[in-house]
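Q: Can I borrow your eye for a moment on a structure tokenisation matter? Would you mind producing a protein record, from residues through to fold? Write it directly below this note and I will take it from there.
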Amino acid sequence: MKPLDPRAAELLCDEVLEGLDEAERRELADLLGDDLALEQHHIGLAAAAVDLAHLPATPDELPEALRQRVLASAAAVVPSGAIGVTGATGPRPVPASGAAPGAGAANDVVASRPRSTRAVLPWLVAAACLAAAVMALVVRPPAPPPVVTVVTVSVPVPPPPVPPASERRERLLAAGGAVVRSDWGGTKDPAATGASGDVVWNTATQEGYMRFAGLPANDPGKEQYQLWIFDRTQDERHPVDGGVFDVGPGGEVVVPITAKIQVREPTLFAVTIEKPGGVVVSSRKRLVLAAKVPTG
């Protein structure tokens, strides 16, 4: 059963003992809601049970002779008019000493069993209400569980790893389309000795790769390789910068092309040796390799 709210228990007891005003009735209704009538019924039954528990059993009517003897004995001890005896039909007044039974209304006694019981009843009901309030305090509902705040943290998904340049070159060739492929040709520069490879380029996607074998390794602190792309739509004195790159010792190397501007109609790819970081305009003194784009 749901524990009774302590304040509701207090108001229910007050309702039985002395009644409630309008504000208290509204408060009680708010506290109990749909359970109001049921709780009022329970507290009423409790009060009635307390009342009945303290009522003496109704005795049978005494014989008149015995009743008179009891009254006479009581009159000798208790002052006149202080005792009343309740019969089957209600309280009977006790006559003063020497007076006949029933004579003199001045000696009537109004104290009776029901009245004395009613005088004690509020204290008994209050005790019952106090016990109910104590139980309501002791039998507390369990504390609500702690509030758990769930915080959603967005963890950025790392981009997929970029495949190596050699793998991307193979994909570009396999895709077909407007892909041009040209072999490198050497020059008189000493770095061209024994160098070979090719260049592939897709004008539609502006993607391309250089493949080298036998090209000497460079010292990036002293010099770097730089690609130049000659475009039919550009002045040949100003080829497109295809980016600087380095070559390590031994083995084959594939380098992505990083054209600084769009290349529309490539005619020639050339590799020079320049100072670290490259140059804007090459003197072409150290032209190492060149690959002419086939026409038609």
User: Anything to note?
Assistant: The longest helix spans residues 113-138. The mean pLDDT is 76.
